[in-house]
Design goal:
Rossmann fold, 701 residues, 5-stranded mixed sheet, protein-N(PI)-phosphohistidine-fructose phosphotransferase system transporter activity, Mannitol-specific EII, Chain A, globular, 6-stranded mixed sheet, transferase, Bacterial_PTS_Sugar_Transport, alpha/beta
Amino acid sequence: MATRIITPQLVGLDVDYGSSVEEVILNLATLVSDAGRARDASKLAAAATERERKAGTGVPGKVAIPHCRSGEVSEPTLAFARLAKPVDFSGPDGDAELVFLIAAPEGGGKAHLKILSKLARSLVKEDFLEALRQAGSKEEIVSLVAGVVEGEKKPHKAEPAAPQADNAGASAVAGAHGNSAASTAPMRIVAITACPTGIAHTYMAADALSQAAGRRDDVELTVETQGSSNDAPIKQSVIDSADAVIFATDVGVRDKERFAGKPVIESGVKRAINEPDVMLDEAIAATQNPRARKVAGVAPGEHKADDEGQGLSLGKKLQQAIMTGVSYMVPFVAAGGLLLALGFLFGGYDMANGWQHIATNYSLTNLPGNTMEIDGATITFDRSGLALYIGSVLFATGQAAMGFIVAALSGFIAYALAGRPGIAPGFVGGAVSVTVGAGFIGGLITGLIAGFIAMWIGSWKTPRWLSSLMPVVIIPLLTSLIVGLLMFLLLGAPLALAMTGLQDWLASLTGSSAVLLGIILGLMMCFDLGGPVNKAAYLFATAGLSTGDEASMQIMAAVMAAGMVPPIALSIATFMRAKLFTPAEQENGKSAWLLGLSFVSEGAIPFAAADPFRVIPAMMAGGAVTGALSMALGVGSRAPHGGIFVFFAIDPVWGYFIAIAAGVVVSALVVIALKQFWPNETIEKAAADKAAADASTGAPV
């Protein structure tokens, strides 16, 4: 480091810095300013005090660590005070005697943030705190801190403590922590720690949990810190083998879906610092509680991330990026589409001829009639008054949401490739795609271009003074400029032509060609049940929904109907021939029908994962039948999601139900036939084990 992070000038020993948190922070900020490391002490103090109001920074050991990022700070700095009069920082052990102010520059370098993190983690060590209390000079304080930040190796994983030499000792440890026997294998727990600034509490919580686990023989803990140091994520294989998860965070957990299906204990980050053993006990208890809260999402193993995040092929990177974009786009589509459907429900279908005029020119105290002048033309509506007005407002809100779908698709594709610096240029590229008429095809292209360009610019070696501007100014600016120029000058016109051609082709589909498209879409929806192929079909359907043309609505209906078939069919099959399914599948079948009715294709994933060669072909057969019938009967849907619960947006609804019923019958019969005449060894073994267990307990077989 060019300069030390703490110097004697930044240390106050046995000082009276006032009786309030604000006074102490201001005095420490003044030390930083007087040392030439901050422009304005009062502004730095204000930033740290504002952070303090969100959550007190008092930690065990009568220590406080107020911290913040501020544009006033020129370089990462530590200011320390050993107070003559302790002050209340909301710590668990009472008023703070030792106070560190951690001041980081806005967008400061990651190497310095790692040093700050090391110090924060050391504050949970009793010997370090005692040395700070006994130090006789400012130079000794500086030496202690330098020894910590330069010599400490940051642990990630706490290995379980060595077994006790005698059974009595081992039992005592197990009993103290709720384990039933010393010989029981340790529970595998994974944990995430994260605080708003990612500097101090993140790493203190990680160390507190790790140290607590290291003293026990009933826990094997792996911690991922989601802080400022960009620590490596936990390997997916470790997550998959974990028994439970701890989220000790004050912010959202990044990539939370990795932990889907795991029992979870959640709290703020300070609780992990103050009560690490209690949280570990709660995690162990959750593994034995079938009603314990679980991380929402698809069960582990269905969508595995690469363990290291490195060495992915270009094709895999592209697939992951596009899937990320689609997953973030879907909420816009679902919310916007359902609002459009509700708008039609209230205002009638002819409301679409004047929704914007009605929503902006009328109010609850000035309701519209059924006839009005719009752009020089007289328009008559079937409905009037409150129903027409509410319908128009809902429709306008839905249109606003749908207006973001291309930008969201593009923005989050770029985000998946380049991280946060890719979001803005990705959104800009998506907006430009809409402007030039390139639609969702343009959104896909601009998202990929923005992501790769942002990655490339981010790899540039820049001077230190410029590095903090790269992610927030330079990368978004240059990438947005390049993407915009490419779209307006080169790519926009041909992509718009391709989009127009696609729309014209869809509009021309009739008879056998429409049925063939329905078959293809049905097969795609049931092939991987929420995977890339399924999402591609859904994206194709939703892309044209906002246009409101008949062909797009028919495609939407076929896709939604086909996606409903697998969970319903498998649920019925488990009731018809329960012996062909494992006990776990029989249990899943009790709720799968509801997921199917709600258009949640993922409800069939547990069945497909356990027996793909029998389940997937059967589901595809039913999906193809449903897609074909839906298109043949001319069924249209104005809603992109909701299953049978948006029946009011489907016409003709009887055709919709016929198509779904036919597909369900086909899939259920085919999967039963395949399992009956092509037995699954896993099922047979499970049945034999159950019969043996019943025989051993005297239960009827």
